[in-house]
Design goal:
The protein is mainly alpha-helical. 73% of the residues lie in helices and 0% in strands. The chain is elongated. Its main location: Golgi.
């Protein structure tokens, strides 16, 4: 229908144009004369009752000419006027038909109009309701913001009150004295676990009250009296208990280590006294120091006295030196000498005392040894005595640190207050013994025992004995050096002509040196010491000179060489058994032996060329 209307409009336009052109041809020139043409004044031409613009008409015509139906009509030569009338007729028919359709549907249209009007009314009411809702929502939003602000303020107040409640609760809990605490402190024995628990609670409350009093809290005055009475009662019970434990140490035949170990379970008692009654704490500490110092002194004095009774009866004397001849005679009133001086310079099994298994073996029991008629060298007694001292000192130092809550210099001072008298007595005993000691091997073994015990004390983290070890070494080293110098001097001053008959076999003095030097070298290998090597070097020089002096006593060169080779070979063999192959002594005598062997080979070749 739209295409037909377009074609009709286009046809009308074409008809109008064609009619206009025909009229211009038929009318010809106007009456004004043959050359005069008056312009046609059409004014505002209204063809379709709409404003008609020629440019737009041309555009429409051009567009309509592009239509397929118009092209077809132009091609077939249809009469446009007739076609236009036909189109108008069809349009009128369509219009009439449309009017009839509208008339037939008038009721439905009226009903639709009424429905639309009703919908408009409903929508209008909805709009009013939504407007009311919008205004209500605006007021609710403002109320929500107000409530949110109020809620934030209430949360702040709540947190503040909770913080105050927590602080106040801590304060009240710290100040209130429960009945269970009062009952336990007043009635429970100190050995019961609940007494210890409530004592810790009492200590915490006393500390809290002192802290709050420093801040000026007035509520502390309400509980101060109760806490003071409970503190006095607890201090009294603790003092009696600890002093009874300390007094039990004094009973004869009592192993004091048992009650001492039991005291560690109640170490908080002393901490409580230290924090609440320092005078009582000092009294207990002084009583402990006085009691234990006497116990240790008595025990070690008795032990040392009984221990020295199981020492070998035959000990080295000042005349038992390396260069002293075996045939030397003594006066009528002199003591009998050792059956063989060679045992003084021989290590034998004595070196086992510094082995790891023997070093920390159980201490010697003197009365058991006496019943079994057993005897021991001095270094074994020294090891037993100082291992007991080391073990007890380590235990005592650790107990003092843990029970009396001290460390550093304070622990060191308290330890020496307990063990000082015992250590001084032990040093005096050692000093007294060393005055008449001429057994260099025993003294050297004691030095290495001390060095090893010092390492053990360091591993146990007990520095309190460091000064004592240094004092012991200060006694042992000078004595060892003195004995070694005495042996050096004895070898230096030995006159070969006074030694009696000589032969080419190894001399007993060189054998003594070989045994003695190998003993010291084997001991010194475990913990090398340069001082020892220097002293042995001096002794070695004197022994070499002695061997040369003795060799010079032989008349023949052959005997001299044989004597030198035998002595060097013997000393080298003994040293290689116990010392390392790369030691200075082994190298030195190896060189001497090689030199003398080469000389002997040269002389043999000289006198026996065919041998």
């Amino acid at each position: 229908m739209a295409a037909a209307a377009t074609m009709a409009a286009a046809a009308r336009e074409l008809v109008l144009r064609a009619g206009a052109s025909d009229m211009e041809e038929e009318e010809g020139p106007l009456e004004g004369g043959p050359g005069l043409q008056e312009p046609l004044q059409l004014g505002e031409l209204d063809i379709t009752s709409d404003e008609f613009i020629l440019d737009e008409v041309d555009v429409h015509i051009q567009a309509n000419l592009e239509d397929e139906l118009v092209k077809e009509a132009l091609k077939t030569g249809v009469d446009l006027r007739h076609y236009s009338k036909q189109v108008e007729l069809e349009l009128q028919q369509i219009e009439q038909k449309s009017i009839r359709d509208y008339i037939q549907e008038s009721e439905n249209i009226a009903s639709l109009h009424n429905q639309i009007t009703a919908c408009d009314a409903v929508l209008e009411r909805m709009e009013q309701m939504l407007g009311a809702f919008q205004s209500d929502l605006s007021s609710i939003s403002s109320e929500i913001r107000t409530l949110q602000e109020q809620s934030g303020a209430m949360n702040i107040r709540l947190r503040n009150r909770q913080a105050v409640r927590g602080k106040l609760g801590e304060l009240v809990d710290g100040l209130v004295v429960p009945s269970a605490l009062v009952t336990a402190i007043l009635e429970a024995p100190v050995t019961e676990p609940r007494f210890l628990e409530q004592l810790q609670e009492l200590d915490a409350k006393a500390a809290a009250v002192r802290e709050q009093e420093a801040r000026g809290t007035a509520a502390c005055a309400d509980v101060r009296g109760v806490l003071d009475r409970l503190r006095i009662k607890a201090v009294t019970k603790i003092r009696e208990f600890i002093l009874q434990k300390i007094y039990s140490f004094r009973k004869p035949m009592t192993n004091y280590q048992i009650p001492q170990t039991a005291l560690l379970k109640y170490r908080f008692f002393y901490q409580f006294l230290l924090g609440n009654e320092r005078a009582t704490a000092k009294e207990i500490r002084d009583e402990y120091v006085e009691t234990l110092s006497k116990i240790y002194l008595s025990y070690y004095r008795s032990y040392l006295g009984r221990l020295m009774k199981v020492q070998y009866e035959e000990v080295a004397e000042k005349d038992d030196l390396m260069g002293v001849e075996d045939t030397a005679k003594k006066g009528f009133f002199s003591k009998p000498s050792l059956r063989s001086r060679n045992t003084i310079f021989t290590l034998g099994t004595r070196g086992s005392v510094i082995s790891p298994t023997e070093l920390e073996a159980p201490i010697l029991v003197p009365h058991t040894a006496q019943r079994g008629e057993q005897r021991y060298p001095f270094e074994a007694l020294f090891r037993s005595q100082h291992y007991a001292l080391l073990d007890n000192s380590c235990r005592e130092y650790l107990f003092i640190c843990e029970f009396f809550v001290v460390s550093g210099s304070a622990a060191h001072d308290l330890f020496h207050a307990v063990m000082g008298r015992t250590l001084s007595m032990t040093l005096k005993h050692l000093e007294s013994y060393l005055t008449d000691c001429y057994d260099a091997i025993a003294v050297f073994l004691c030095i290495h025992i001390v060095l090893r015990f010092r390492n053990i004390a360091a591993k146990r983290d007990v520095p309190a004995l460091d000064r004592y070890w240094e004092q012991v070494l200060a006694l042992l080293w000078p004595r060892f050096e003195l004995i070694l110098e005495m042996n050096v001097q004895s070898v230096r001053s030995t006159d070969p002509q006074r030694l009696g008959g000589l032969d080419t076999r190894p001399h007993y003095i060189t054998r003594r040196y070989a045994e003695f030097s190998s003993a010291l070298v084997s001991i010194n290998q475990t913990i090398p010491n340069e001082r020892t090597m220097q002293l042995l070097g001096q002794l070695q020089v004197e022994v070499e000179n002695f061997v040369l002096r003795v060799a010079a006593e032989f008349s023949s060169r052959k005997e001299q060489l044989v004597f030198l080779i035998n002595n060097y070979d013997m000393m080298l063999g003994v040293l290689m058994e116990r010392a390392a192959d790369d030691s200075k002594e082994v190298e030195s005598f190896q060189q001497l032996l090689n030199a003398r062997t080469q000389v002997s080979h040269w002389e043999l070749d000289l006198h026996f060329p065919d041998y």
